[in-house]
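re: that chain from earlier
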Amino acid sequence: MRYEGTVYRPPSEANSLLIQATIGCPHNKCSFCSMYKQSSFKIRPVEEIKEDLRAARQYYGEFVESLFFPDGNTIIMKTAQLVEIISYARELFPHLQRITVYGSARFVNKKSVEGLQQLKDAGLSRIHTGMESGDDVTLQRIHKGTTAAEIIEAGLKLKKVGIDTSEYYLVGIGGKERWREHALESARVLSAFSPDFIRLRTFVPVPGTPLYDEYKQGSFKLLSPHEALQEIGLLISNLNCEGSHVLSDHVSNYWNISGRLPDDREIMLDGVKTALAIPENRFRPAEISRL
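^ sequence. v structure.
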């Protein structure tokens, strides 16, 4: 198995086999992100990916239950290529229960519904999507390269074919100026297609990124711990999702706010209230250089 550059994966893929199918990110312009900056984007040859899958089979045996194909936006690969490596992985690892990739709305929407159905039939289980926000102003400011309408379109397409959607919401990315719009618009967008998972991440400025420079210069105002928790409360109060799991599965977050909508809404809001009763100086600093 061969790896190039730093390999990133979602926390929920901690126990997954990682086989690089792409290197880097084809967008790589988000102003808050420090990932993939040392890599030029490329798609690995299918035969190389198959070689690594065979090496993994030889090393781990057939009892692999989950597989994640890094790097960023692997969904950009041609549908036929993805079908080939997914199908081959299932041949080598007959006990696979989940196969996942990263894929932002912009690149998901390059696939037709028919193409996504082919991927689902081949065995693609879930797509991790860095939505970050459903607010168009915020999305433009952070150079996300997508719009709220595109996020909804991609979410509906994935729901239609039955591929799990794991959407990432970046708490505080609207700053003090736009935290309310960020939360309300994100709730509207997510409610339009009820993703399977809504994963909370709290924005922490990373040195070397454009948004960190904006923060240091004072043009971006970072939320305090209580303000970030209030934003989460506003988001959850306005989510009209059916069956979506809200998860706080990241070290960046100030509090574990988790549950299933709509049944656990009040439990989650009570969790926010509990956290807000704790003095702010008991939480981690809003700015830390590395998590």
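Strands lie at 17-18, 22-23, 42-43, 66-69, 98-102, 126-132, 164-171, 197-202, 245-247, 259-260.
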